[in-house]
């Protein structure tokens, strides 16, 4: 309906029903899959899909900023490999991880390997989490995971719909809450 206020109202209503992690896993991620299918079937326009995606991105950014972070604790870098742009799932994961008190550096979408290695070095990260939302992202994620593990000695984890297509990394499953708990446990 191209109704920004309506989208915000739905987000407000849903996020008031339970914990962040439960709402993300039980409602938000399935709703975003349905939105993508509606776009692919031309039931929703590109503008409508972007309107919703950006409202969700703003909600996730506010939750990330509001979450506690244990500054000085083990640091985890989270983002997407080069060419990957669908960041809502990995950003929701970063929020959940930060809500557990982990010091999270969220890098966002479309990061080449040299940007990842610079971030790992600059932030002395113990772990990285790479999102793999689409099948084409698996190849670049695999290359990135191998480079980071081989040359930087960090624990490399992957999440997202196509994480099973990535070798040389710890797979986190498909639910944000348990995946965040798993990474926090590794630290």
Nutshell version of this structure?
By secondary structure, this protein is an alpha/beta fold.
Give structural notes:
This protein is of the alpha/beta class and 187 residues long. 57% of the residues lie in helices and 15% in strands. It has helices spanning 4-15, 20-40, 46-66, 88-99, 113-123, 135-152, 176-186; strands at 75-81, 103-111, 127-131, 155-159, 170-171. A 5-stranded parallel β-sheet has the order 2-1-3-4-5, sandwiched between helices. Helix 4 links the parallel strand 1 (75-81) and strand 2 (103-111). It is globular. It starts with a helix and ends with a helix.
Overall mean pLDDT stands at 93
Helix content: 55-70%
The gyration radius over C-alpha positions equals: 16 Å
Shape: globular
Spatial sequence of strands, sheet with the most strands: 2-1-3-4-5
Largest sheet: 5 strands, parallel
Q: What is the straight-line distance between the termini?
A: 44 Å
The SSE order reads HHHEHEHEHEEH
Structural class: alpha/beta
In DSSP terms, counting alpha (H) and pi (I) runs of 4 or more, how many helices?
7
> How many β strands by DSSP?
5
Low confidence ranges: none
Strand content: 5-15%
